[in-house]
Amino acid sequence: MNILFLCTGNSCRSQMAEGWTHHLKGDQVNAYSAGVETHGMNPYAIKVMNEVGIDISGNTSKLISDLPGNIKFDYVITVCGHAHENCPYFPSKSKVIHVGFDDPPTLAKGLTNEGKILNIYRRVRDDIKIFVKSLPQALLSE
Question: Which domains does the chain have, with CATH numbers?
Fold first, then answer.
């Protein structure tokens, strides 16, 4: 099963989802991530994923057009409202599903205490983990 996690900038939530899926479901699911824009990798996302033993530091923020063209996605999971509203058309039989997660950079905006910032990222990371643990069964019931 091929799954694409789609977000606005492919810097945080979609990257965490891809990382969790490789880690927890790599034997069942081929996971990819991309954005409708690119914003670069979010250092806090990298940090909180490293805390749980998942290294996404080698990932890059990419557009859908940056992915190999021969991949047929079974599911495209939008993880933010902007990506869901701007999700491009997929010519294959991809089923688009929206599973929204809070945006850590938005929630942390204006905060200066790194501990509070990291707690926001940890909460979203853990929310994404809960969803990924339910794969692929959660998709089959959609």
Answer: 2-140 (3.40.50.2300)
